[in-house]
Specification:
Shape: elongated
Largest sheet: none
Helix content: over 70%
Number of domains: 2
Radius of gyration: 24 Å
Distance between the termini: 89 Å
Number of helices: 9
Number of strands: 0
Strand content: under 5%
CATH topology of the largest domain: Tetracycline Repressor, domain 2
CATH architecture of the largest domain: Orthogonal Bundle
Order of helices and strands: HHHHHHHHH
Length: 231
């Protein structure tokens, strides 16, 4: 029974999670989920990973994960694409060093290879490849996005590297041919060592080959650009 003249004060709500978190906290939860999922997928593969373990490592509830990702497969795709996005952002900030275009492109190619041939990146690519038969759409989407963004980033690097060089007037370096030239650069300079890494060659041995491999293939690539225009 309420005493006369005495006002009832509303009870304070207990501290805790209620409603949507602020945007900055939501972003932090997203990052925790993706990082935790990356570790679990690397350790156990897609089939062996569980949302329960990812939630525990991310210090997030399962409802928080499913509110962001419809399935474990969707979360895996987000992890791979996030890895690609981080790489593209890193490559976008590269200012190739060197006095000649050969040196600048070799520097750019070596940096790209050293990032991709790190153990976590190559292992994540292996997991994605292992799931290609069971989840062909996911594998196709991941490959297409990685290829597209990679070519865009390499295209910018090629354009910047050629700016102060006579090669800037070579048709292969014209803006409308940037995508094709970038594709040739990736296929000749980057892919050969990546394929060897995916098939299990020791990454330490491949790392020692990066500089001589890149120097040889960049020279071949530039010679091809000058003679054929990358048509």
């Amino acid at each position: 029974m309420r005493l006369p003249g005495k006002k009832r004060h509303p009870q304070k709500r207990p501290a805790g999670r209620s409603g949507r978190p602020p945007r900055e906290l939501a972003g932090e939860v997203d990052a925790r989920i993706l990082e935790a999922a990356r570790h679990v997928f690397l350790e156990q593969g897609l089939a062996g990973a569980s949302i329960d373990e990812i939630a525990a490592r991310a210090r997030a509830g399962k409802p928080s994960i499913y509110a962001r990702f419809a399935s474990k497969e969707a979360l895996f795709g987000a992890v791979v694409l996030n890895n690609v996005a981080v790489a593209i952002e890193r490559f976008g900030s590269i200012a190739p060093s060197g006095a000649t275009i050969d040196e600048r492109l070799a520097d750019a190619g070596a940096r790209i290879l050293r990032w991709i041939l790190s153990s976590q990146t190559i292992d994540l690519m292996r997991v994605a490849i292992s799931e290609a038969r069971r989840l062909p759409d996911l594998a196709s989407d991941v490959h297409r996005m990685a290829r597209q963004r990679g070519e865009e980033a390499v295209g910018r690097l090629l354009t910047e590297a050629a700016q102060s060089d006579p090669l800037r007037v070579v048709p292969a370096f014209a803006p409308e041919r940037q995508a094709t030239t970038a594709r040739f650069f990736i296929d000749s300079v980057v892919f050969p060592l990546i394929v060897r890494g995916l098939f299990g060659e020791r990454l330490e041995a491949l790392d020692a080959e990066i500089n001589p491999h890149v120097a040889r293939t960049v020279s071949f690539f530039l010679a091809a650009c000058q003679h054929s225009g990358a048509d």
